[in-house]
Design brief:
117 residues, 4 helices
């Protein structure tokens, strides 16, 4: 599981940077890619197995997933062009990595609660 968490963290940091850099590259600002980018960087950066980082990951990862969903909705609602598609091959991997990190944080919290009784 340690290797899978490490791969998920690398994916999250990379995709978070892509989301933030994409705004700079295209010269636009949108709140949903900003939230998903920051969420990805934060989710990938907190590698400690501490109680505080696990609680923060349980907030950051779902926020990133919701931001990606809101961005996809905005993309399809505003751009009515034939052949239009959202970047699902990249985003599905990002969402899966965020959800896996959240699962790892939840399992760490459960483990800590069981140890403390």
């Amino acid at each position: 599981m340690h290797t899978a968490i490490t791969i998920s963290r690398v994916i999250c940091v990379f995709m978070g940077i892509v989301h933030l850099f994409g705004q700079l590259f295209f010269g636009i600002f949108a709140i949903t890619p900003t939230i998903s980018g920051i969420s990805g960087i934060l989710a990938g950066s907190f590698s400690k197995a501490s109680y505080t980082s696990a609680k923060l990951l349980l907030l950051v990862a779902p926020a990133g997933v919701l931001a990606i969903g809101a961005d996809a909705y905005d993309y399809y609602a505003s751009d009515q062009i034939p052949g239009n598609y959202y970047a699902w091959p990249e985003e599905v991997v990002f969402v899966a990595a965020l959800l896996f990190i959240a699962y790892g944080a939840l399992s760490r919290l459960r483990q800590r609660n069981e140890q403390n009784g």
